[in-house]
Design brief:
- Helix 9 packs across helix 14.
- The protein is globular and about 65 Å long.
- The chain has 19 helices and 13 strands.
- The chain folds into 2 domains: about 180 residues, 3-Layer(aba) Sandwich (Rossmann fold), CATH 3.40.50; about 180 residues, Glycogen Phosphorylase B (Rossmann fold, 3-Layer(aba) Sandwich).
- The chain is of the alpha/beta class and about 375 residues long.
């Protein structure tokens, strides 16, 4: 049986968004795979399957670091001699290079390099000083979109035959879907609202909502605007809140949820009139897939990878053109009204989300491992 290593370092974070969720989806399938002998590791330190299963059950890595510290102190790393006979997948950065016999990396995007104006200096420096060597020393590069694959090929010269696209997935707990059909988050009034989805950071372009409200203040009387996502970097939330006075609408018409559980997020998306994802640049745009799988219309930018994700449920606009955003919002409102009039049951939702899971993503990774 093939022996392979999956770096699960990202799972040790207390709250999971983005990359930790991707790693969790891969790890969940790796635990069940009887054809590959997966070793789970924090960098090169093995992590027991029971610990990984516990993380997945809690959807959090909280409390995992003390045991890891003990293992590191006791020198319980995978021996280099053994590592030479193993293949390894690094779902983000590579903590070691050419340590394992065969190595693959997942590249999510090159945004710190291609759009540095949306990142802090530390993030740009960290990324810029790692990514080239990470790509050069990888036998295979998995990219989360065709747009990212093209960027890696263009900027780093990685041969196309050493890369492939793995489509990310969207999965929902049936109980959360059922609850979401019945209720919204308790502190939101039972009134129409739109959901602006994504971490609060400049790249996500949340400011376009405030530009829109300055031109169309009446929209805030029809819909409450709910930003769903944790605080990111460059103090974007404070910057957005600082614009409230100049918008001309009551502050209670705009809400920021901060980090929310999967159940809350699902309920908020299901019950939104429609969603907005105005990001300037994305390696994939997972929230667009999640919204589309739930049957929600999403106003989203036509940049980078986003048009690849779920185009049939999207209304696209150029993120640098306010006129296009205004038009997209009007179209989305009309399409959303038509969708709501048809309604949907739990069976409808389950059927809708079923084709968009993580099996295809894991299948591509598994196929590469078995070819080695």
């Amino acid at each position: 049986m093939i022996k392979a290593v999956l770096d699960i370092s990202a799972l040790f974070e207390d709250t999971w968004t983005g990359i930790p969720n991707v790693v969790a989806a891969i790890a969940e399938r790796a635990l069940k795979d009887q054809t590959i002998d997966w070793v789970f590791a924090y960098e090169t330190i093995p992590v027991s399957r029971s610990v990984v299963a516990g993380f997945l059950g809690r959807h959090s890595g909280q409390g995992g670091l003390p045991s890891l510290a003990d293992a590191a102190w006791n020198g319980e790393a995978i021996p280099e001699k053994e590592a030479r006979s193993m293949s390894a997948l690094f779902p983000n950065i590579k903590p070691v290079r050419k340590y394992f016999g065969k190595e693959a990396i997942i590249v999510h995007d090159l945004s710190p390099l291609l759009t540095p104006e949306f990142h802090n200096a530390d993030n740009i420096f960290h990324f810029a000083n790692r990514i080239r060597k990470d790509i050069e020393t990888s036998d295979h590069v998995f990219c989360v979109s065709q747009a990212t694959l093209s960027d890696v090929n263009t900027y780093f010269g990685k041969p196309i035959n050493q890369m492939s696209v793995i489509r990310l997935g969207a999965e929902f707990d049936p109980f959360e879907l059922s609850a979401g059909l019945l209720q919204v988050r308790p502190n939101l009034l039972a009134e129409p609202y739109i959901a602006v989805i994504g971490t609060l950071e400049p790249r996500k372009n949340g400011g376009v909502i405030f530009d829109y409200l300055m031109q169309n203040p009446g929209f805030a009387h029809q819909y409450r605007i709910v930003f769903i996502g944790r605080d990111g970097w460059l103090d974007e939330k404070a910057r957005l809140l600082g614009r409230l006075e100049g918008v001309g609408v009551s502050s209670d018409r705009i809400q920021f949820t901060g980090y929310v559980s999967n159940a809350e997020r699902t309920a908020l998306m299901i019950n939104a009139a429609f969603c907005v994802y105005p990001s300037f640049f994305e390696g994939f745009g997972l929230p667009v897939l999640e919204a589309g799988a739930l049957g929600k219309i999403t106003v989203c930018s036509n940049s980078s990878s986003i048009p690849e994700v779920f185009p049939e449920n999207c209304v696209f606009f150029d993120p640098t053109e306010m006129f296009e955003f205004v038009q997209a919002m009007r179209i989305a409102e009309l399409r959303a009204a038509q969708t709501r009039s048809r309604g949907q049951s739990l069976t409808d939702l389950l059927d809708r989300v079923a084709p968009h899971g993580w099996d295809a993503c894991y299948g591509e990774i598994s196929r590469w491992m078995k070819e080695q």
